[in-house]
Amino acid sequence: MTQTADQIQIRVYYEDTDLAGIVYYANYLKFIERGRTEFLRTRGVDQGAYKAQTGVVFAARRVEADYLAPAVFDDLLTVETRLSAIRGARIFMTQTVLRDGDTLFRAQVTLAAMTEDGKPTRVPADLCARLDRVLE
């Protein structure tokens, strides 16, 4: 897996496919999860360390997904992650999975910031400051 600031590449393995030989629909959610993790990592946020330091974790609250075309075994996919907005306890992202520039999957993702015991909390100011630079 290689990465740039807003993209990672993922190879489709046999285990990612279903009986028809195409990527099983739920695996796209795994692919975009990796994209979000790397998006934060490239901005200096290690989610495990962040949890230990602040007690704040992030969970997918809502995913609106469009499956546009199938990926198949051995495809090299690009997962693009873009920050759309930060509001209160929520982070909004747009994610796209592409093959050779063609869009296969697109999702609007809402993340919720919460304490370790599952209560909503505002996105911490230090994280907002890091991510606000992306929105500028």
UniProtKB/TrEMBL annotation:
Gene3D superfamilies: Hotdog Thioesterase. Signal peptide: none annotated. Keywords: Hydrolase. Belongs to the 4-hydroxybenzoyl-CoA thioesterase family. This is Tol-pal system-associated acyl-CoA thioesterase. It comes from Meridianimarinicoccus marinus. The gene is ybgC.
